[in-house]
Amino acid sequence: MNIVHLVYSGVGGAGNICLSLFKEDLKLKKYSSKVIFTGPLFADVIEKKKNKFFFIKTIKYLQFLSWFTIILKLIKIRPDVIYLHNYQIIPSLVYSIFYKKKLIYIDHAALNYKTFRDKLIARLIKMFKIHTVVLNRENFNYFAKHNIDKKKIHLIVNGVNHYFFKKKKRKKKKFFVLGMA
């Protein structure tokens, strides 16, 4: 199975999660994974792998100008599944519809950073019945509030397990010793 991750090229949470998934796929050798980075700059931290990492330059606020290039790259790679880690849903959706391939949207944005484009993406997710992966309960509720089928929203908790690291209760001593030197 051929998999493509479409992610913003900056170093951050989405890129780190995408690269950890990519490295795990390389170890298992079960899937053929490739990563398409989009953004103004390609991060120097990411080591370049021939025929595995691709970069498509975008201009801030004019990302729609790169949609055709993204579609052409997807046609060339021919993925069976697209993991979308950024806001390039239109070119991914076009490829997904014409080639009848699976599109999975992974939402990395915190709830307080949701904007108009997140509402637009929620409508497209509802309209085209796209599976969505969220990283916390608040984002799960956000998409559920937009009348998206809860069976299409998948919660993967990202971060520290609060139940495992909870503070242990200690017995209080009834008295204490005070000494003098």
| Mean pLDDT, all residues | 84
Poorly predicted segments: none
Strand content: 15-25%
Helix content: 25-40%
Structural class: alpha/beta
How many DSSP helices? 5
What would you call the quaternary organization? single chain
Distance between the termini: 75 Å
Shape: globular
Task: Describe what you observe in this structure.
The protein has 181 residues and is α/β, with parallel strands linked by helices. It is built from 5 helices and 7 strands. The chain has helices at 13-28, 67-77, 89-99, 116-128, 137-145, and strands at 2-8, 32-39, 53-57, 81-84, 102-107, 131-134, 153-155. It has a 7-stranded parallel beta sheet, with helices on both faces. The longest helix has 16 residues, at 13-28. The model has no long low-confidence stretch (mean pLDDT 84).
Features of the shown structure:
181 residues; alpha/beta; 7-stranded parallel sheet; 5 helices; 7 strands
Could you give the topology of this structure?
Elements: E1 2-8, H1 13-28, E2 32-39, E3 53-57, H2 67-77, E4 81-84, H3 89-99, E5 102-107, H4 116-128, E6 131-134, H5 137-145, E7 153-155
Parallel strand pairs: 1-2, 1-4, 2-3, 4-5, 5-6, 6-7
